[in-house]
Design goal:
By secondary structure, this protein is mostly beta strands. About 15% of the residues lie in helices and about 40% in strands.
C-alpha cells in the first residue's frame, strides 16, 4: 500500500514539473521522402527520428537535435521566403516574416514539414 502512495506522489510530481514549459505551441511535423531510390545499396535499418519543434512568437525551439539540417519557410504561393542551417536548440526567425508558412526541415533524403503561423 505504501508503494502505491509513493507511485501516486511520483506521478503527480512528474505531471506538475512536466508542464513547466507550456507557453510554446508544438508544431505537428510529418515526413516526406525526397529520393526513395538513393545511392544507398541497403535500406536504412535504424528508425527515423522525427524532429520535435515548438514555436513561441518568432522563436523556434528544437526539442530533438536538428543541428546541420536545413530549415526553409515556404509561403502560401509555394515560394521559399527564408532558409538557414539549424545550429543549436533555438532559432529566431526574422520579425519581417509574418503569415502562414510551411516549415520544412531537410535532412539527407527526407523532408520533415509542418505548418506554422508567424
Amino acid at each position: 500500500m505504501k508503494k502505491n502512495y509513493y507511485l501516486l506522489a511520483l506521478v503527480l510530481t512528474m505531471m506538475f514539473f512536466a508542464n513547466v514549459h507550456v507557453s510554446a505551441d508544438p508544431v505537428l511535423v510529418q515526413l516526406s521522402i525526397i529520393d526513395p531510390k538513393s545511392d544507398q545499396d541497403e535500406p536504412q535499418r535504424s528508425p527515423i527520428i522525427v524532429p520535435s519543434v515548438e514555436i513561441e512568437d518568432n522563436v523556434l525551439t528544437f526539442i530533438t537535435s536538428c543541428d546541420g539540417m536545413e530549415l526553409r519557410l515556404v509561403n502560401e504561393e509555394n515560394e521559399v521566403e527564408y532558409t538557414t542551417i539549424i545550429s543549436g536548440s533555438t532559432l529566431v526567425v526574422p520579425t519581417f516574416l509574418h503569415g502562414d508558412y510551411q516549415l520544412q526541415i531537410i535532412s539527407e533524403n527526407f523532408i520533415f514539414y509542418g505548418y506554422i503561423t508567424l
